[in-house]
Amino acid sequence: MRSYRLFCLITLLLVFRLDLRAEQTEAIPGKIIYKDISYVSGGHERQKLDLYIPRGRGPFPLLVWVHGGAWRAGSKERPRGLEWLDRGVALASLNYRLSHQATFPAQIEDCKSAIRWLRAHAEKYELDSDRVIAWGASAGGHLVALLGVTGDVRSFDVGGNLEQSSSVTAVIDEYGPTDFLQMDAMDGEIGRMNHNAEDSPESQLIGGPIQEHPERVKSANPITYVTEKDAPFLIIHGDEDPLVAHGQSVILLEALNHAGVLTSFYTVKGGKHGWFKDLQVSQRIEGFLVDHFGLSH
Predict the structure, then answer these.
(1) How many CB atoms are located within 10 Å of the residue 247 CB?
(2) In angstroms, rounded to a whole number, what is the distance separating the alpha carbons of residues 26 and 32?
(3) Smallest Cα–Cα separation from 281: which of 242, 272, 145?
(4) Are 46 and 110 in contact (CB under 8 A)?
(5) What's the CA dihedral at 165, 169, 174, 177 to 10 degrees?
(6) Which residues pair with 35 in a beta bridge?
(7) In contact, 139 and 74? CB cutoff 8 Å
(8) Which residue stretches of 173-227 are H helix?
(9) Residues 91, 64: Cα–Cα separation, whole Å
(10) Rounded CA gap, 240 and 288, in Å?
(11) Rounded distance, CA 102 to CA 121, Å?
């Protein structure tokens, strides 16, 4: 009997320890951090998120950061937007499957799975499901743009928590690609990449040279899905971007405006591919978040 009780105790301790590993919690002044939460049950090692919760009482509006890295690199570590915790905004930073692990639409399926998981667990973490803003840059900008224009598209919703919506309240898209087949033509003299090449980030994302697979490309292009039902956008792009031409954001702006979607656009004069020194960038982002989260200025 004593041996059996000891066995039960050891088993309980092991289960408890494994549970802690699955959701490691770290507390530092002003916020609580939940690391490496699986948003897909039994899923890939990349299908995890980190969740930062402000101190105080919720429900908290939620900012969702989606990292860049040409869909073949990058991490949820060191997300943008942590300063918003001090203003009562929760932050989720996502990993998603990279292009060498799974081709499109795996990446947007993962982002949507994460949004649905967050809504399904909103009560536990004191999140406001009605105020969810997606923010990303470069490849992350492409994915959050897709989130913004596919709120009413169910084909990318696969897996668990399907009773939850994967739509977002608003989108901050920084220099994300929007129409792969036009990228090389837009690059002009400042372009540093052959996007039509079979080893380009875009070709690797869809699983073949983009010019040879127009239907796959169409399914991956945010511009394909624009309708009047889309979320409001803030789009930011440098006019000397050597990797994703400024024109990629211009054609998205034009499509959104034509559909009557509330859109704000800011061109960074002389701006390259991120690392902007223009103070207007942070001011525009702050104003957009304040307005769409309904916060006080």
Answers:
(1) 19
(2) 6
(3) 272
(4) yes
(5) 40
(6) 24
(7) yes
(8) 183-187, 201-206, 214-220
(9) 6
(10) 24
(11) 26
The closest alpha carbon to 207, from 78, 109, 98, belongs to 98
* CA distances to 7, 75, 235 from 133, in Å: 48, 19, 13
Tell me the per-residue pLDDT of 114-161, one tens digit each, with 9 for 90 and over: 999 999 999 999 999 999 999 999 999 999 999 999 999 999 999 999
CA atoms within 13 A on the CB side of 135: 22
Q: Which of 112, 118, 119 is nearest to 156 (CA)?
A: 112
Q: Cα(198)–Cα(64) distance, rounded to whole angstroms?
A: 31
What angle do the packed helices 139-149 and 106-120 form, to 10 degrees? Answer: 60
Judged by DSSP in three states, 220 sits in: helix
CA–CA separation, 78 and 277 (whole Å): 19
Q: Is the peptide bond before 105 cis (omega within 30 degrees of 0)?
A: yes
Among the listed ranges 2-6, 30-34, 87-91, 104-108, which one has the minimum average pLDDT value?
2-6
